[in-house]
Automatic annotation (TrEMBL):
Residues 16-257 form the NADP-dependent oxidoreductase domain. Belongs to the aldo/keto reductase family. It is an enzyme of class 1 (oxidoreductase). The keyword Cell inner membrane does not apply. The keyword NADP applies. Keywords: NADP, Oxidoreductase. Its EC number is 1.1.1.-. SUPFAM superfamilies: NAD(P)-linked oxidoreductase. GO terms for molecular function: oxidoreductase activity. It comes from Christiangramia antarctica. Gene3D superfamilies: NADP-dependent oxidoreductase domain. This is Aldo/keto reductase.
Length: 282
């Protein structure tokens, strides 16, 4: 497994296992155990996923030493604000059954971002979190947070896939030394991703699947990636991407798939902001 180094010196696996949309307790626990057995050491969950307890139980049952793991969770907008963020963090830690967290993210760029970030900064200084960061922050929001706070986010987790490659976002993150992490690397199958002719043909050259080609493309762009699957064979397949390297020609060919358009929703859409307000209980 290749590691990347965050801006505070903490090392993080470049490829991890995500548990978004695995809400069933037994399925989530079983899948995380399968991932750990396959060699994953980075697990990405969130308060909003409703599966932190299953992840925590799987970690405990695995018997893998804590220092060998890199665990990420996220604060949901309903608990933004200094005091509420502190309480939500404690609740997440209780469910995960951990004494410290490797990475804690603000899940969305809405509500009381500044109060929440102050809470994360304090938890970081207290040694309860090894690194803090954000998710779904566009460049302007990311630079704003960096400019007016003491501690710079170590990472920004944003939608990134072959159809929405986030080149401009990546440039800003590189400039400000913030690690780029992808969610939905397979676009959740949208745009006939798994049947894409270009990716299929590239995969044939290396004896790899469309998913493996895409994960390798991310890694060669120095983007951390957290694929999700509940199928044991695919969980194993997704980590088997360190025995080949895409050529420059293949990397360039994949760049032509970029549409610069989200496959889900735009966080700058007013209607979506209103929806997040509802989800936050306001």
């Amino acid at each position: 497994m290749k590691n990347i180094t965050l801006n505070n010196g903490v090392e993080m696996p470049v490829l991890g296992y995500g548990v978004f949309q695995i809400s069933d307790y037994e399925e989530c626990k079983k899948s995380v155990l399968e991932a750990l057995k396959a060699g994953y050491r980075s697990i990405d969950t969130a308060q909003a996923y409703g599966n932190e307890k299953a992840v925590g139980d799987a970690i405990k049952e695995s018997g893998i030493p804590r220092e060998k793991l890199f665990i990420t969770t996220k604060l949901w907008v309903s608990d933004y604000g200094y005091e509420k963020a502190k309480k939500a963090f404690a609740d997440s830690m209780e469910k995960l059954q951990l004494e410290y967290l490797d990475l804690y993210l603000l899940h969305q760029p809405f509500n009381d971002v500044y109060g929440s970030w102050k809470a994360l900064e304090e938890l970081y200084k207290e040694g309860k979190i090894r690194a803090i960061g954000v998710s779904n922050f566009h460049p302007d929001r990311l630079v704003d947070l960096i400019s007016f706070n003491e501690i710079k986010p170590a990472l920004n987790q944003i939608e990134t896939n072959v159809f929405h490659q986030r080149e401009e976002d990546n440039k800003v993150m590189v400039e400000y030394d913030v690690q780029h992490e992808s969610w939905a690397p397979f676009a959740e199958g949208n745009g006939d991703f798994f049947q894409n002719e270009l990716l299929t043909n590239i995969g044939k050259k290396y004896g790899k699947s469309v998913a493996q080609v895409t994960l390798r493309w991310m890694i060669q762009r120095n983007i951390v990636v957290i694929p999700k699957s509940v199928t044991p064979s695919r969980i194993k397949q997704n980590i088997d991407v360190f025995d080949f390297k895409l050529s420059n020609e293949d990397m360039d060919a994949i760049s032509t798939l970029n549409t610069n358009t989200t496959k889900f929703f735009d966080h700058r859409d007013v209607k979506m902001v209103e929806q997040f307000k509802t989800w936050a209980g306001y």
